[in-house]
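Kindly review these tokens for lecture notes.

. . .
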Amino acid sequence: MKLKIAIQKSGRLNEDSLKILKDCGISIDNGKDQLKASARNFPMEVFYLRNGDIPQYLRDGVVDVAIIGENVLVEKGEDLRVAEKLGFSKCRVSLAVPKSNKYESVRDLEGKRIATSYPNTVASYLKKKGVEAELHIISGSVEIAPNIGLADAVCDIVSSGSTLFKNNLKEVEKILTSEAVLAVSPNIGAEQEEVLSKLLFRIRSVLTARLSKYVLMNVPNDKIDTIISLLPGMRSPTVLPLAEEGWSSVHTVINRDKFWEVIDELRQAGAEGILVCPIEKMVI
């Protein structure tokens, strides 16, 4: 029985989704403009769908799982289960106003017109803040709305902020942060759950590897205990004697977020010849 997975049909999320499946060792036969493709070496079918349609396909059981942005789930699928956060396609949903506007707080949006593709998200946020505003629902580029007099503010996804800048807008309120997630249909069958479990095992191995670096270093034997005390690695580092008497090679794994801080401490403690390697997969 094949696991039916939906991904966005085009764009950055599509590319990142296909990459993580490839990194999981799954080969997809996807020709140009195909709406469905099968994996050659894993019980999986890939459906290429419009992002906004995916939550309903999950509810209806047309697909079993989907790689989708959290922002879309907040807007259209808060009832759907998230099996794993995937760490890519990060963005935020934010409110923005023209740069020339004076802005002090969300209260400044009282009675104003807000253009957005995320009406449920915006309405929920404004309700929590006790602000009433008029929402204009727009599909596509909402940033142009203030420039043509359609709205006083916009709410949209923001990555670098360059699109807002080009349209003379400034980000004033961050409503939520988002990344790609693996969402699951409430109607997924037992056999598909088994395949999903295998997929999650592979995904977690890939994600752990992406967050880690394999580090090898030469250490004087009288400094080994000090060096080991500085390492935030797995269970225990590997220590191997070198051909040169009095020295050993120490191997460990360091989390990417702490990497430079730890490397500086290791150098100061006497480590030399530090070699850093990427990790393709990491099974724990």
Observations:
- Helices lie at 12-23, 54-60, 70-76, 119-129, 162-166, 190-210, 224-230, 259-268.
- The radius of gyration is 24 Å.
- Residues 27 and 214 are 27 Å apart (CA to CA).
- DSSP finds eight helices and 15 strands in the chain.
